[in-house]
Write a structure and sequence with these properties.
TIM Barrel; alpha/beta; globular; eight-stranded parallel beta sheet
């Protein structure tokens, strides 16, 4: 595991999607998120060929590092190695985390998607840094025939079973954040709440302010 990475320092984890940018370039949306305060981004595109993805990912990495932010690559481990990305995020059908760790080395950040208790328990000895549990709510970015929405109670219960830090994603909006924070789910991955916002920087500031309000006024008990 990466000793330098602390997921709990990141309240908002921005996950990109080339199809959900509101007509803007991916880099413009990322820059807005970074200007708003995001410091953890996953660069994701399921359709772009490797050559085009690598070119864009290199630019994204340079942009993130100019803000002191972390860039993880979705799935494409060898490409992440080639460009010197900070790590990868893997799905259940992607490369085995053991192989990803062998390729990327001990300092890389590796995250893994989880959807149920079996997967959470199976990952206990994996050489990973965090779990992403979801989908929280119904979302167009996830196939719900395979992965039904879990809801806050189930995600909270699965997080309690994890030996790794946890983030969660899937249809999460600003209005959900204080309730999730009260449940101990204090790192939230988001796509469209940021990428489709008219002003991504302003939206990120609003999202971070929701967590700040919960920190200042925690619920009794």
């Amino acid at each position: 595991m990466s000793e330098a990475f602390n997921l709990t320092q990141h309240r908002i984890y921005f996950v990109t999607d080339h199809n959900l940018t509101g007509g803007r370039s991916q880099l413009d949306v990322m820059r807005g998120a970074l200007e708003g305060g995001v410091r953890l981004i996953q660069y994701r595109d399921k359709d772009l060929p490797d050559a085009g993805f690598e070119r864009e990912a290199r630019a994204a990495l340079a942009l993130c590092h100019s803000f002191g932010a972390i860039l993880l690559i979705n799935d494409r481990v060898n490409l992440a190695k080639a460009i010197g990305a900070d790590g990868v995020h893997l799905g259940q059908d992607d490369m085995d985390p053991l192989e990803a760790r062998r390729i990327l080395g001990p300092r890389a950040i590796i995250g893994l998607s989880m959807h149920n208790l079996h997967e959470v328990h199976a990952a206990r000895e994996s050489p990973i840094d965090y779990l992403n549990i979801g989908p929280m709510f119904p979302t167009k970015t996830k196939d719900h025939t395979q992965y039904p929405a879990l809801g806050p109670d189930a995600v909270q219960a699965l997080a309690a079973e994890s030996r790794f830090p946890v983030t969660t994603m899937g249809g999460i909006k600003k209005s959900h954040l204080r309730d999730l924070a009260r449940r101990g789910l204090t790192t939230v991955a988001m796509v469209t709440e940021i990428s489709l916002a008219p002003d991504p920087a302003a939206r990120v500031r609003e999202l971070l302010a929701e967590f700040a309000l919960q920190d200042e006024h925690p619920s009794p008990g």
